[in-house]
Amino acid sequence: MASYLLKRLAGLALVLLVMSFIVFCLQSIIPSDPARSLAGPSAPQETVDQLRQDMGLNDPLLVQYGSFVSRLTQGDLGTSIRTRQPIAEDVLRYGPATLELIIAAMLMGTALAFILAFAQATLQRSGGVRVGMLALGSVPIFLTALLLAYFLWFRLGWFPGSGRLDIRRFSGPTGFFVLDGLLLGRPEVSLSALRHLFLPALALSVPIAVSVGRSLSSALVDVMRQPYIRTARGKGLGAGYIFVRHGLRNAASAPLAMLGLQVGLLFGNLLIVERVFAWPGLGLYTVQSFATSDLPAVLGVALVFGAFYILVTMLVEIAQSLADPRIAL
Fold first, then answer.
1. Within 10 A of 157 (CB to CB), how many other CB atoms are there?
2. How far apart are CA 302 and CA 308, in angstroms?
3. Which fold has domain 87-323?
4. What is the rounded distance in angstroms from the CA atom of residue 318 to the CA atom of residue 283?
5. Where in the chain is the domain with CATH 1.10.3720.10?
6. What pTM did the predictor assign?
7. Dihedral of CA 225/231/237/242: which sign?
8. pLDDT, tens digit, for every residue of 66-93?
9. Residue 209 carries which DSSP code?
10. Is the dihedral of CA 321, 325, 327, 329 positive or negative?
């Protein structure tokens, strides 16, 4: 395990170095002047020239890239043109909202995937479940989000359609409002956070549930035909016990790999879902940065998402090894 972790961390550093080079090249190629953007359109040329000198934009490209990598090793992602704040501080400010949404979506998606796979594996006639999964998988994420907002918020009023809380000016120790409400002894905060979290998390969980559910059900079809499953049924064990105890673990490798792939797709879906539900996270922050041509902020968030995806991939590989001892790290 230790050697595996060392190799994966070395690979993480290498991948981040390659990503930093790509990000730097994009910043250099795209015809925009960060100094002019920071100074403003009405600033005199002398001020812009001084900013370019202070930012090192007049140095050779290799010197600029070395400075860029040096700042990254210190956690400096640059300065946002839109907020005029360090991008690292913006990530720390908006990151907890996005991470809370991702965790909720992953939990909901995994639970729904188990339900769909169990229904398809145990029901005698599972054609309706299969058709339903195909129908859900065919709906684009923006339409799913809009339909949920229209019916469950606008028409029925069951759940709020924007924001994170009904309570204004609330700040907790962690930034995860569901957890903060429990830590501070304010269950109304946790309840309000859960109600606001439900719709965007459900919209993000649908693609996860369909993809992982189909992968799990396909793997279970093969597992449920094995001789040890017939033996368990001959002993009179229940379908639920056989599904969890004997089927699920042996069929977990492919669904875990699919879950890791869905995390990568989740980052793109975040931009849409957070925009639709006005969720104040990194997705909405990135969309607003796109609208104002804030390239440093967009690329800084891309680096953060890339590092997070690599870590999730490593955790998925470890989970696959724990679920199936035949898979070596």
1. 9
2. 10
3. MetI-like fold (1.10.3720)
4. 28
5. 87-323
6. 0.83
7. negative
8. 887 888 888 888 888 888 888 999 999 9
9. H
10. positive
